[in-house]
């Protein structure tokens, strides 16, 4: 077999270098004289072959004031290779001084005793790549600025919506309070006509429903604008549940709402808000069940917490809806729920209230069979 033991001559090496697509030049002497430069390097400088044999700073005067010539002198002095990636340099392009970006290497060539005597300079123009990267970065920054702007607009719109809900709710509350007062006035007149008595009771029932709804809207808007406040006090949770059950018993007389108060369950919480959570869960249990279906409410102490559950044998909830029930304005869309009125804020508010009390709320359900809603909150310490 033929052996490849021959070594390339200097001329052959130079030929290889000069065929290279990379811009290549060789400098000698402490004046950084251009010993050789391939066409790619000459193009790079924007010059012609007359530069060969001249010191670099005379051949390419625009390099004066830039760091490159000193860097080359340093390489010759120290014998250490200098390289850089995407370094900006001012170069002559189409008769104008322009910023271009280079990836370069200044490699010292040393004699037998290790003394550098010339420098091999290779470079590639990465201006297009750098410009493309900068353009991408610019577009990303613009997009981020737009996203930011969009977020601010959404926050503002959300704020306006909350302000609107709050204003409308307040405006609705005032006449409703007057209506309720007039109805109570009539009821206190010792009416004997049974039809009138019953009708007034129904009016009062509807007023109460509407009032709860308006309060929910007000609470949503307060919650969203961070203005909801807890009026904390010590109270027996079972007592609050009993009161709610009694109240709702009047509104939903055909549904049996079962609750047996047990030992005192002292909690330190916002009584009205916890009452509204219980009321919401029981109202839902009734709303999403048959007219005569019963509801069971239970409360038990486990560890340092009290657990409350509301069980119904109503329409039930599909698994994929269960995850979203506590989202704002979420309502299950089905033929059964279509005719049941609501806004999808009751559970959202309940969850927020329970969270504010460092508690948990969740639901389990079997579609078509019934649901159990649970919450737990810490007992007073
Ligand atoms: P609303 O009842 O006003 O729509 P909620 O936030 O109280 O709003 O409830 C959200 C949705 O959860 C309801 O629309 C209903 O689809 C479902 N849901 C709540 N409670 C029950 C329940 N006990 N049984 C079946 N579905 C329920």
Automatic annotation (TrEMBL):
Keywords: ATP-binding, Kinase, Membrane, Nucleotide-binding, Phosphoprotein, Transferase, Two-component regulatory system. GO terms for biological process: cellular response to phosphate starvation. It is an enzyme of class 2 (transferase). It catalyses: ATP + protein L-histidine = ADP + protein N-phospho-L-histidine. One of its GO terms (cellular component) is plasma membrane. Its EC number is 2.7.13.3. It holds the Pfam family HATPase_c. InterPro entries: BphY/WalK/GraS-like, HATPase_C_sf, HATPase_dom, His_kinase_dom, HisK_dim/P_dom, HisK_dim/P_sf, PAS-like_dom_sf, Sig_transdc_His_kin-like_C. Residues 167-381 form the Histidine kinase domain. GO terms for molecular function: ATP binding; phosphoprotein phosphatase activity; phosphorelay sensor kinase activity. CDD domains: HisKA. This is histidine kinase. The lineage of its organism: Bacteria, Pseudomonadati, Bacteroidota, Sphingobacteriia, Sphingobacteriales.
């Amino acid at each position: 077999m033929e052996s490849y033991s021959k070594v390339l001559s200097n001329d052959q090496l130079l030929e290889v270098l000069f065929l290279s697509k990379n811009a290549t030049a060789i400098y000698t002497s402490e004046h950084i004289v251009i010993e050789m430069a391939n066409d790619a390097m000459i193009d790079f400088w924007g010059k012609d072959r007359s530069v060969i044999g001249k010191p670099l700073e005379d051949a390419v005067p625009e390099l004066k004031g830039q760091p490159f010539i000193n860097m080359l002198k340093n390489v010759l002095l120290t014998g250490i290779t200098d390289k850089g990636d995407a370094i900006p340099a001012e170069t002559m392009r189409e008769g104008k001084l322009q910023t271009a970006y280079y990836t370069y290497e200044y490699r010292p060539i040393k004699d037998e005793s290790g003394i550098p005597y010339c420098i091999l300079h290779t470079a590639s123009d990465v201006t297009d790549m750098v410009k493309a990267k900068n353009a991408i970065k610019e577009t990303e920054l613009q997009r981020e600025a737009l996203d930011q702007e969009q977020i601010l607009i959404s926050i503002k719109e959300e704020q306006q919506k909350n302000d609107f809900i709050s204003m409308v709710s307040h405006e609705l509350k005032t006449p409703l309070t007057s209506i309720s007062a007039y109805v109570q006035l009539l009821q206190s007149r010792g009416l004997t006509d049974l039809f009138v008595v019953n009708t007034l009771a129904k009016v009062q029932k509807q007023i109460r429903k509407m009032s709860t709804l308006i309060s929910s809207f007000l609470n949503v808007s307060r919650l969203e604008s961070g203005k909801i406040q807890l009026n904390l006090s010590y109270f027996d949770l079972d007592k609050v549940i009993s009161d709610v059950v009694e109240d709702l018993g009047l509104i939903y007389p055909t549904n049996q709402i079962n609750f047996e108060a047990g030992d005192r369950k002292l909690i330190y919480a916002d009584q009205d808000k916890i009452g509204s959570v219980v009321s919401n869960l029981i109202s839902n249990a009734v709303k999403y069940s048959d007219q005569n279906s019963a509801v069971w409410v239970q409360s038990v102490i486990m560890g340092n917490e009290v657990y409350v559950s509301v069980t119904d044998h109503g329409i039930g909830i599909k698994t994929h809806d269960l995850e979203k029930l506590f989202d704002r304005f979420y309502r299950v869309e089905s033929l059964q729920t279509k005719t049941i009125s609501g806004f999808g804020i009751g559970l959202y508010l309940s969850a927020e209230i329970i969270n504010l009390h460092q508690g948990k709320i969740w639901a389990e359900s079997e579609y078509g069979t019934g649901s159990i809603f649970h919450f737990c909150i810490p007992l007073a310490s």
